[in-house]
Amino acid sequence: MKRVLLFVIASITVFYVDAQLLTWTPPFPKENDPSQTLVITMDANKGNQVLLNYTPAGDVYVHIGVITSKSATPGDWKYSRFTWGTTTAAANAPSAGTNKWQYTIAGSLRTFFNITDPGETILRIAILFRNGNGSRAQRNSDGSDMFVPVYGDNLAVRIDQPFSQPKYIPVPEMQNWIVGSPFVVTANANKLSVLKLYHNGTVIASQSNVQTISGNSTVSVAGNQQIVAEAGDGVITTRDTLNVFVAPATWPVAALPGGVHDGINYEAGDTSVTLVLRAPGKNRATVVGDFNNWIQASTSIMNKTPDGKFFWIRIHPLSPGTEYSYQYIVDDSIKIADPYAEKLIQV
Question: Which of 25, 114, 157, 235 is 20 to 30 Å from 191 by CA-CA measure?
């Protein structure tokens, strides 16, 4: 049975690492705390940047809802408060400085979103910042929605540095790390606990009876850098993991296999494919998808042809009859779609 690989529609995407798209206080918002004042700040220097230098600064509003235990998918917003393209005063997001806007929710999130079912819990706040008529909407760089996680009473820990993109499942910002790059890791917990930081399985920091911890490490080898924050209170141990890819100093060069063409090349048996990307003038490319958990690693590196016009990689093994999504990342900063893909999906 011939396999069809799906491709994620993606615009050219450039990431910056000097700020975060979304920040919020308190750092671990709860769904039913009447004393809570949640302040969400958006920085238009990040993400898709459609509100960068936008004027008038007072013409920015939020589109806001929640993902709950009853949402079918991460895109299944519930209890949206405001109508798109309207300028309801309650949706206004005041300026918080140059290219920054804030939105504040005072009191219980359940009350704010009018959630009355005691069996329904809030998992994420879904939020977009837009101009008054809705013609511009600040999102993640790839056009996806932005989310703020909501926490319960159980012990939780989160890596806050390196920065992450506020997707439903956060992914790290692109880092310009090379072998030898030093970096700082900071994690926070919602309770006093024993906190530990790991880099590629090695403990780089450990402290007891704290809620914040920082540690320093250095990239010693190219490939995936796995950063783990661990919190334990003697009863529960929980972790947060971040994977950052560091490209090798020398990119592999190899001629195209015989008989292949641009795009997807299926092999006999339907368990292997060769992907070919035409990208003249580019330095390096990787592929991420369902087959590698969307993580750049040594196995996701595409060979560059001697003439510098193509990148290619053989993916194996794959399951016959299974549809896979995938995406190219070029020069560590550009996400592009395969123009020869047989199907497209929107994320």
Answer: 114
- What's the chain's average pLDDT? 91
Give the contacts of 198 (CB within 8 A, at least 6 positions apart): 204, 226, 227, 228, 229, 230
The alpha carbon of residue 280 and the mean position of all alpha carbons in its chain are separated, in whole angstroms, by: 28
Whether residue 124 is predicted with pLDDT greater than 50 in this model: the reply is yes
Domain boundary residue among 246, 266, 294?
246
4 pLDDT above the threshold of 50: no
Same domain for 207 and 297, yes or no, is no
Residue span of the structural domain in which 127 resides: 29-149
Longest CA–CA span in the chain (Å) reads 67
SS3 content of the chain, % helix, strand, coil (to 5): 5, 45, 50
Q: Do 144 and 62 share a domain, yes or no?
A: yes
How high is the pLDDT of residue 156?
98
User: Is the full-model pTM beyond 0.90?
Assistant: no
Tokens of 338: 């395969």
- Percent with pLDDT over 90 in the chain: 78
Q: Which residues pair with 187 in a beta bridge?
A: 159, 213
DSSP code for 30: B
